[in-house]
Design goal:
This protein has about 70 residues and is mainly α. About 65% of the residues lie in helices and about 0% in strands.
Amino acid sequence: MITDAKTFGEVIHQKRKELNDTQTFLSEVTGISVSFLSDLENGKKTCEREKVIYIANMLGLEQIKNLAEH
């Protein structure tokens, strides 16, 4: 269960690794900086919501999209 930014970051990190993607690759595909992705995976609380949802969608985490819409 995702209850905070740290847990969310861990889920993003695990999914990215599961897909064998690097932060650099994901950055190139999405146009979002590696530093933002690193902050996201490390649970930084100030990450922009739209970018967070976009990354979750790119990784196929539909439950995150559904959660954000409520």
